[in-house]
Amino acid sequence: MSAPAPRGYAELQDVLLDADFPDVDVALRRGRHVDRDDVAWYALLSDGQALLEPLYRRYGCELVHRPDGFFYLVPVGDRVSRRQLAPGDMLVGQALTLLYLDPAVAARGGRVGLDDVVTQLVAVLGAGPLVATFNPSRKRVDERAAERVTRAKIGEAVRRLATLGFVEAEDEGRLRLRAALMRFAEPVRGQAAPAEALAALVASGEIVFEDAAAPPPERDDDEVVRDDEADDADAPDDDDGDDDDEP
Amino acid sequence: MPEAPPDVRDPAAALALLATRRPSLELSTLDLGLLVALHARAAATGLGAFTEAQLEEAYAAAAAAIEPDADPRRRAPAAIQRLRAQRLLARVDGQGVVRSGEFALSRLAAGIVEFFLEDDVLTQGNLAVLTAGVQAVLTTALEAARGATTPAAWQAEVEAPLRVTARDLVAGIERRQRGLDLQQEEFQGSIQRLLEADWFGAVAECQHLLEATSATLRELATMLLRDVATLRVALHDLEDLAAAAGQVDAERAAQRVLEQLDRVAAWGAARQRAWSEYFQYVHRYLRDVVRLDPARALTHRLREQLAGGGPRFALTLAAEGPMRVLRTARVVRPQPPVVRPRAPRERELAAAPVDDPQLALDAEVRASLAGGAATLSTVTRDVTGPLPPRERYLHAGRVAQTVARLAHAHGERERAWVASTDELVIEEWAVAPREAS
Questions:
Q1: pLDDT of B387-400, one tens digit each?
Q2: pLDDT tens digit string along B264-294?
Q3: In sequence order, which residues have a C-beta less than 8 Å from that of residue B228 and are 6 or more positions away?
Q4: DSSP states of B375-408 as a string?
Q5: Closest to B162 in 3D by CA, of B237, B215, B222
Q6: What is the pLDDT of residue A247?
Q7: How far apart are the first and last CA of chain B?
Q8: Residue A55 burial (C-beta neighbours within 10 Å; 0-12, 13-18, 19+)
């Protein structure tokens, strides 16, 4: 696939008048990460980066471009709403990043299935803690039901990450891993100690600590709370809201 | 009588037969080695069959190469028996237990050996040969089609070559395409093994493999596009000639070969696209992951981070909601006030026609009396006669009452019962109009 020709933007107006700009702008403001596989969008942002950065800064956002080949917006002010990824989504995102780094996955073009994600999480966290993380209810529930719920919630987390551009959902339940996953590895990438790297990322607004005094994340409108197997009739499922039951 | 082979067009019947016969195949590497050794010996010496001693010699040669620690003299008879039971070796001498037999590779064994041995991957060389073969067949068929005048000539010189030779050659291309797909899978495995074994040190070799495979696929794709276009033109000409001559079978044969070629071309285009994506993905992986992390420490650190080493954190995202979309304004007409409908308390009276059945009966009785009826039975007959039989009895009483009111009725002490109509019998009165009395 040949790269598109440079668009040659002379002024900000030229970028804003590009036919793709409205879609790119809306996607960025909704948290989407744009990488090289979004050919037209990536070309627009690459060619217009110098003109767009001051524009987004006026809105209190930083247009970040990573060398891995992806763009995203980080709100640093109050003009553009912000949110944090839920703890469950963070776990799944890091597991997907481990798969992205795996040579076996790279050799097959970065394609995995949901089973691979679950296997990776079980390998790192262990089956028991994994189920407990996604089933914070203190009531005793059937093991198989809890595993089913866990698997369903991992699937939901994958779908949410797909809307943000971290993975691409393909046919037959396959996932294609995308470069934006490297954002989950940012704290451990450089030569600096992880604590220093984390502090730098917090200072730039890219991450927050989960126990920081931050407002609870908004629930997604399309989030499905499934408690059909457990007996939680009196307590709604809160796998991506409260952290009270985090191990 | 031997059973007829299953019809491959009927999967249910074929599966039912398999379920009945329950065939299975189980071959170790050494078993395959024996088959390969026999195949090679047959090709070299021209021998079609082997004695048991020759089979054991071949087994020993295969064991020496594949499992040097195996004891071939002890294991050979069991291995040979296993291959016979799985119909890979067939006895061909027909002597039964009279003497030791001679054995040959079955068709199944030959197919297995060919799969593992022969170069069945699409290359520029064999693609050129195959397409040249198809072109030659089509050229001959076109010339024959232009000169054919009888259905037999069409069948023998056009349809048969298309149906047999051209389709076989194109099927050869398809088979080799599948071989190339298998080779791609092995290629992916090679990339994985190189990276797992040497990581940073494997980058150069992986890139070299990628470049070499890209070049091969690019050349194949170009050849395919060019050759398939040429073959399509010839097939369309054949199709048109067959259609003009009314030769439906030849036309269909040309269409089937065209469909095969379309599949071949589609395969080529799809493989190019898939390869392009794969090439870019692996290149980026080598550049962004392997080169920047020569010690492969990132995976370990990320695994520790996921397992809970260090403080938990969350990525910050922009989360602007969708823009408020105002609804389209529409003019709202003022509704009239809701009031109770006013109606007059008392409705005005209106004249309505009276429908009094007694008046009608009075008129009928007067008419009957005026017509000269002198007895009750006669008046009753006149009035109830037109009525349906089931209503006459009902009206008879009313008739008598009306007659008594409108006329003078006189009856004897013992009044006679007289039949008024077919159904009615009444006690008779003599009646006279009131005016007359």
A1: 888 888 888 899 99
A2: 888 888 888 888 888 989 999 998 888 888 8
A3: B131, B261, B264, B265, B268
A4: BHHHHHHHHHTTS-HHHHHHHHHHHHHHHHHHEE
A5: B237
A6: 40
A7: 122
A8: middle
Interface of A with B in 109-128 (CB under 8 A): 109-110, 124-125
In angstroms, the CA A127 to CA A94 distance is 16
- The answer to whether residue A39 scores a pLDDT higher than 90 is yes
Residue B159, token pair as written in the block? 């349809």
The percentage of residues in chain B with a pLDDT greater than 90, rounded to a whole number, is 11
CB contact (8 A) between residue A205 and residue B316: yes
C-alpha distance from A87 to closest chain B C-alpha (Å): 7
Residue from B356, B343, B404, B352 nearest B379 by CA: B404
What is the bridge-based pairing of β-strands A82-84 and B102-105? Answer: unpaired
| Alpha carbons A161 and A167: distance in angstroms, whole number | 6
Dump the DSSP string for B26-47.
---HHHHHHHHHHHHHHHHH--
Number of alpha helices (DSSP H) and beta strands (DSSP E) in chain B: 15, 8
User: CA geometry: angle at B289 spanning B283 and B292, to 5°?
Assistant: 110
Chain A residue numbers touching B317 (CB-CB < 8 A): 31, 72, 82-85, 164
User: Amino acid identity, residue B386?
Assistant: P
Residue with tokens 């439906």: B248
| Residue among B106, B131, B90 nearest B39 (CA) | B106
CB A88 within 8 A of CB A153: yes
Interface of A with B in 25-64 (CB under 8 A): 26, 28-31, 36, 61
Spatial CA neighbour of A124 closest among B310, B306, B296 = B306
* Global pTM value: 0.62
Cβ separation B311–A91 shorter than 8 A: no
Query: Measured between beta carbons, which residues in chain B are less than 8 angstroms from residue A185?
Result: 298, 301-302
Q: Which residues of B322-350 are buried (b: 16+ CB within 10 A; e: fewer)?
A: eeeeeeeeeeeeeeeeeeeeeeeeeeeee
Closest CA relative to residue B159, chosen from B175, B174, B137, B133 = B137
Distance CA B210, CA B165 (A): 36
Work out the percent of chain B whose per-residue pLDDT is above 70. Answer: 92
Chain center to CA of A28: 13
Cα–Cα nearest to A94, from B2, B312, B434 = B312
- Count CB-CB contacts under 10 A for residue B228: 19
Token pair listed for B374: 């002198």
pLDDT tens, position by position, B52-93: 888 888 888 888 777 777 787 888 888 888 888 888 988 876
Contact (CB, 8 A) for A112 and A92: no
Cβ separation B302–A184 shorter than 8 A: yes
pLDDT category of residue A105 using cuts at 50, 70 and 90 = very high
Q: How many beta-carbon contacts under 8 Å exist across A and B?
A: 159
Interface test with B, best of A36, A42, A101, A243 (most B CBs within 10 A): A101
